Amino acid sequence: GENVEQHPSTLSVQEGDSAVIKCTYSDSASNYFPWYKQELGKGPQLIIDIRSNVGEKKDQRIAVTLNKTAKHFSLHITETQPEDSAVYFCAASRTNTGFQKLVFGTGTRLLVSP
Amino acid sequence: NAGVTQTPKFQVLKTGQSMTLQCAQDMNHNSMYWYRQDPGMGLRLIYYSASEGTTDKGEVPNGYNVSRLNKREFSLRLESAAPSQTSVYFCASSEPALKQPQHFGDGTRLSIL
């Protein structure tokens, strides 16, 4: 089955710096890679996702890159702000017909200091 | 627009007691999910419902039952609570094209003594 590893487990940056979180996956048939942001006391929220037919996707200050050959994908946050402080989870799944299990990484706690 | 609403937010039970966690979404989504989140274990899928009237087991279904009452509501029941079920429970929903959780509720923090 799929296994997703996420690094680092904690990341501290200064406001305005960039932050990068990396994930690797094991199942070469996985083709859907979402990222979730979880603020303290809240549920995770989908912030961006990428499918295996593209190598990069951007949405304002966040971007995700995918390297299918190396089986890793990364979340990039530029011009970080204190409100970016949260736990970020990566995940991977296939998208065949029917339900496909989404496997989550163990999370990265991002702290952005003013 | 409330999104995904879970009740209760907190609950303490004694071993052997039963309870139902409620979840409702107002986004007209077909798919709904129940996850549990434990330290160091990440999010694990308990049950999934692709549409009203259908439910499927996830990774950790033992000790739980679910009901997809209608398109809006998806409840999770613990028939005989055990300390190992102490966790934070999240309900989620997604639009039909996505087939993976998109919007999560704020969770139910459940402690079983």
In short:
The complex is a heterodimer of chains A (114) and B (113). By secondary structure, chain A is mainly β.
Structure, described:
Chain A contains no helices and 11 strands. In chain A, the strands form 2 sheets. In chain A, strands 2, 4, 5, 9, 10 and 11 form a 6-stranded mixed beta sheet that branches. Chain A has a 5-stranded antiparallel beta sheet with strand order 1-3-8-7-6, with no helix packed on it. In chain A, a hairpin with a 2-residue loop joins strand 6 and strand 7. Chain A is globular and about 45 Å long. In chain A, 32% of the residues are buried. Chain B is globular and about 40 Å long. With 113 residues, chain B is an all-beta fold. Chain B starts with a strand and ends with a strand.
Taking all Cα atoms into account, the compactness measure Rg of chain B is 13 Å
Helix content of chain B: under 10%
Mass-distribution shape of chain A: globular
- Greatest interface: A-B, 21 and 22 residues
How do the helices and strands follow one another from N- to C-terminus of chain A?
EEEEEEEEEEE
Helix fraction of chain A? under 10%
The strand count of chain A comes to: 11
* Number of discrete helical segments of chain A: 0
Largest sheet of chain B: 7 strands, mixed
Q: How is the main sheet of chain A built? A: 6 strands, mixed
| Assembly category | heterodimer
- Shape category of chain B: globular
Portion in strands of chain B: over 45%
Mean pLDDT of chain A: 93
* Rg of chain A (C-alpha, Å): 14 Å
Low-confidence stretches of chain B: none
Strand content of chain A: over 45%
Give keywords.
heterodimer, A: 114 residues, 6-stranded mixed beta sheet, B: 113 residues, mainly beta, 7-stranded mixed beta sheet, 4-stranded antiparallel beta sheet
